């Protein structure tokens, strides 16, 4: 149709009103826009939004997925009350908070430090940056699984190296078996894996600071220390915030790596929110209860995601 | 301070001493962070006794036993029976017989690996197709509530997988999609499409509108100019986005472990279940992990220039 239209003299083409021209030449922009957006929206509605509403509905019922034939009763807000009063949930929240706080703390210090060093642009920095980035690209489940090997008392590399440098006998401590050490074992693996992420974003922040600001500071005889606190840190802050928020969201819902590493144990010392949720939903089959817990986690993540997108947009304007 | 006197001293170029110190520290970190990875790769080439020896063996005789055990299942037999078999057929047969066992059949590693490939490539293809259409619409047309829709799209990716998995599990059970490759492809497409839209919108925003406008003046319709002008221009961005989607689907564990158990199981839930006699068969795990990680290492190197963009949903472009 359009090729026939091409042959019409240009003058006629120009004098045709746009609306008519569009109708002749095919779909209007508006139709194309909706046609392009619709498939994505339909998929997200089917796989994300419909299940979400289903979860909300289930959270008010006594449905159990292993007993689908049982009559479904409305229990009102019972599950929500149970969850907020449950010591198990609060202990999971405490483990999660410990995990989120310390992983962000270490990743930020090491990640920013590395970014600062890489920004000195020594020879080969691009190559070494790529090497450093490798851990964060790996599958968290596979990482959890092989760190379990490294953490084995006696035979594990981690215990061996610790004993090599400190003289503590390698079989005298169990990173994954001890109530005291297990929460730190998962922090170490997460820090190993995700420091590169924080480093990469901090590096972008450092590189976004124009040189002339430092030149001006040098003219004003500001000390290096002062330059760091008054220029480097404040100007890289939006990027640092971005990294912190994203790591916060990701670690708040951490499941795979910790599940493979400790399975929540010993006892429930490393049982993070997602692991508790998995236990309740897929091992205890308390579908209603776990749906209510899922909704609480949803709302929290949704709130955090909102802040995160605002931070993203702030960085985008730079 | 600078070694060369012909060059004026610049405040923003670090001195060579600074560079050297920064470089050594970064290289030291890179080496330490690569240690766990080297260790698991090396373990794949050890014999089971070597893999659990104390002190850990750094120098060892490479053996194919890990790889043999990864691909086969074995049964224990009496010495007399094994001697009656005659010459071993191939390396793996010989290695297995040394442990007084015979190869009973193929392990599930290859089918699981193929599942991973099918599901990762299938979902990536769909996510990129849907993503590029949606991204184009958001980039070029005035969409009512565009910011809210984009936030909605992104927020679906931020949801805790376990919370999403509860209703998906029930839904898939109802419609017969549980433990099918199609079910996993649809699910991963839904998770990946949000990343694809955000990343591709950034890439398409960078293509000047004038290109399409020029094409449309020349008689192309909007659709033709999209396919013949915008898509070729966005090729790099589409490739980078595709690799990010592939990595996610390749690495994903939480949905895979809850929604697949046999026919459609992928590698991440399978690798931790590789066990030998009396516990984990660490050389086989090492071998399985190595083969599973190789594609990721290749992708990381291919992606290094776009990594920052990928992990910040296209916000930081460098």
Walkthrough of the structure:
The complex is a heterodimer of chains A (318) and B (318). Chain A is mainly α and 318 residues long. Helix content of chain A is 74%, strand content 0%. Chain A contains 15 helices and no strands. In chain A, helix 4 runs antiparallel to helix 15 (287-316), helix 5 packs across helix 15 (287-316) and helix 10 (182-207) packs across helix 12 (224-252). The longest helix of chain A is centred in the N-terminal third of the chain and has 32 residues, at 87-118. With 318 residues, chain B is mainly α. Chain B has 16 helices and four strands. Chain B has helices at residues 16-43, 48-51, 65-71, 79-83, 91-98, 109-140, 146-158, 161-175, 181-205, 209-217, 222-233, 235-251, 254-259, 267-270, 282-303, 307-311, and strands at residues 72-76, 101-106, 275-276, 279-280. In chain B, strands 1-2 form a two-stranded antiparallel sheet. In chain B, strands 3-4 form a two-stranded antiparallel sheet. In chain B, a hairpin with a 2-residue loop joins strand 3 and strand 4. In chain B, helix 3 (65-71) crosses helix 15 and helix 9 (181-205) packs antiparallel against helix 12. The longest helix of chain B has 32 residues, at 109-140. The radius of gyration of chain B is 26 Å and the shape is globular. The two termini of chain B are 31 Å apart.
């Amino acid at each position: 149709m359009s090729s026939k239209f091409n042959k019409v003299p240009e003058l006629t083409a120009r004098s045709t009103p746009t609306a008519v021209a569009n109708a002749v030449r095919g779909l209007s922009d508006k139709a194309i826009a909706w046609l392009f957006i619709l498939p994505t929206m339909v998929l997200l509605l089917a796989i994300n939004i419909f299940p979400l509403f289903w979860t909300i509905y289930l959270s008010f019922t006594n449905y159990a997925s292993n007993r689908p034939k049982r009559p479904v009763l409305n229990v009102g807000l019972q599950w929500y009350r149970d969850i907020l009063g449950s010591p198990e949930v609060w202990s999971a929240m405490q483990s999660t908070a410990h995990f989120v706080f310390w992983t962000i703390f270490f990743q930020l210090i090491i990640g920013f430090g590395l970014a600062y060093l890489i920004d000195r642009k020594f020879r080969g920095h691009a190559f070494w940056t790529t090497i450093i980035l490798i851990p964060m690209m790996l599958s968290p489940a596979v990482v959890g699984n092989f760190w379990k090997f490294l953490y084995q008392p006696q035979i594990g590399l981690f215990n061996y190296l610790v004993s090599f440098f400190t003289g503590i006998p390698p079989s005298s401590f169990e990173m994954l078996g001890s109530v005291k050490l297990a929460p730190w074992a998962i922090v170490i693996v997460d820090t190993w894996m995700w420091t590169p992420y924080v480093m990469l974003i901090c590096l972008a922040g450092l590189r976004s600071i124009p040189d002339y600001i430092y030149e001006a500071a040098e003219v004003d005889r500001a000390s290096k220390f002062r330059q760091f606190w008054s220029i480097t840190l404040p100007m890289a802050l939006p990027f640092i915030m971005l990294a912190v928020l994203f790591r916060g969201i990701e670690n708040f819902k951490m499941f795979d790596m910790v599940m493979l590493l400790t399975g929540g144990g010993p006892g429930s010392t490393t049982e993070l929110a997602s692991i508790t949720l998995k236990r309740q939903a897929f091992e205890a089959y308390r579908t209603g209860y776990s749906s209510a817990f899922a909704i609480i986690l949803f709302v929290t993540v949704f709130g955090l995601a909102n802040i995160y997108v605002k931070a993203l947009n702030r960085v985008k304007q730079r | 301070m600078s070694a060369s006197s012909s060059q004026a001293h610049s405040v923003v170029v670090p001195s060579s001493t600074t560079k050297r110190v920064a470089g050594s520290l970064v290289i030291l970190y890179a080496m330490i962070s690569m240690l766990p990875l080297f260790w698991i790769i090396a373990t794949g080439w050890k014999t089971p006794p070597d893999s659990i020896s104390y002190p850990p063996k750094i120098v060892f005789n490479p053996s194919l036993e890990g790889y043999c055990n990864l691909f086969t299942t074995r049964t224990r037999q009496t010495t007399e029976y094994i001697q009656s078999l005659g010459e071993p057929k191939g390396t793996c047969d010989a290695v297995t017989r040394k442990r007084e066992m015979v190869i009973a059949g193929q392990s599930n590693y290859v089918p699981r690996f193929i599942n991973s490939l099918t599901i990762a490539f299938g979902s990536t293809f769909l996510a990129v197709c849907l993503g590029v259409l949606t991204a184009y619409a958001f980039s070029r047309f005035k969409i009512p509530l565009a910011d809210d829709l984009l936030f909605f799209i992104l927020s679906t990716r931020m949801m805790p997988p376990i919370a999403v998995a509860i209703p998906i599990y029930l839904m898939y059970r109802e419609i017969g999609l549980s433990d099918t490759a199609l079910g996993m492809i649809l699910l991963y497409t839904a998770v990946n499409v949000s990343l694809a839209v955000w990343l591709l919108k950034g890439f398409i925003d960078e293509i000047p509108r004038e290109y399409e406008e020029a094409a449309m003046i020349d008689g192309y319709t909007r659709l033709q100019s999209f396919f013949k002008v915008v898509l070729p221009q966005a090729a790099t961005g589409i490739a980078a986005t595709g690799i990010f989607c592939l990595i996610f689907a390749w690495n994903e564990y939480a949905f895979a472990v809850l929604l697949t158990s046999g026919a459609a199981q992928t590698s991440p839930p399978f690798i931790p279940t590789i066990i030998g006699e009396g516990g984990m068969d660490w050389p086989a795990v090492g071998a399985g992990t190595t083969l599973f990680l190789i594609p990721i290492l290749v992708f990381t190197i291919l992606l290094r220039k776009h990594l920052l963009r990928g992990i910040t949903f296209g916000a930081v472009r460098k």
